[in-house]
Amino acid sequence: MGNLLSFKNVNYFYQTKNDEIFALNNVTFDTSEQSFMSIIGPSGCGKTTILSLAAGLLKPSSGEITLDGEKQIDSKKIGYMFQKDFLFEWRSVWKNITLGLEIQKPKNIDEKLALAEELLKKYDLFSFKDQKPRSLSGGMRQRVALIRTLALEPKLLLLDEPFSALDYQTRLTLCDDVHSIIKSEKKTAILVTHDISEALSMSDKIVVLSGRPATVKEILPINLPGKTPLKRRENQQSGELFDHLWRQLINDETKEK
């Protein structure tokens, strides 16, 4: 598989009322097709900024970002999943899932509507399609949000702490669900998270960032046994990798203090 997303020596500055902030410093990494990559780092280091750059919502101050070999980011190739599900309570599950299609009005809308229906059936949500989001559990709402994104058939999924608002039990279950759906649909994903265990259990690769201005401290390949994130958490090697990553983050936060 080739690289889908590449950052090469990316720098990013932004202006506040009183100062110019140096957010990213020569950030370089690649994401290959159908891979799952996580980004971890201290709070405020620029993880979400990287997602915004990847989505084309921000432009780098210098350096190069390519998506699917193109420097111009095509927003239709990007799917974004947030901490909040942003489901509209006055619309049914089906109307929420097809909202993006209503807005984009693609020429092959019948095919995409058929895909949305197929995804609902495949992931056990079809019986809820006429219900309002308030009748769903937190985990089900996030699955609906993911299917809404997948219905648009993006090439790259950007996940900005999508599990952090959930209780621990739901979070573990949803990690398994989301990972399974993304792998089954052969999508490429980048997850931003503060949870080291979450990153380890879901990822093929982890990018570790320093404090601001963020640099890439390490790119760590992950190859833990187990078909699901929950099974991977139980592996002894997972504990060793957790300690290694924890030391990376703690050392960086200690330096900042």
Write the layout of secondary structure elements.
Blueprint: E1 3-15, E2 20-32, E3 36-40, H1 47-54, E4 62-67, E5 78-81, H2 93-97, H3 99-104, H4 109-122, H5 138-150, E6 156-160, H6 168-184, E7 188-192, H7 196-202, E8 205-209, E9 216-221, H8 229-233, H9 236-256
Parallel strand pairs: 3-7, 3-8, 5-6, 6-7
Antiparallel strand pairs: 1-2, 1-4, 8-9
Helix pairs in contact: 5-6, 7-9
Question: How would you describe this structure to a colleague?
Answer:
The structure is a single chain. The protein is α/β, with parallel strands linked by helices. It has a single domain, classed as Rossmann fold. 37% of the residues lie in helices and 24% in strands. The chain has nine helices and nine strands. The chain has a six-stranded mixed sheet with strand order 5-6-7-3-8-9, sandwiched between helices. Helix 5 runs parallel beside helix 6 and helix 7 (196-202) crosses helix 9 (236-256).
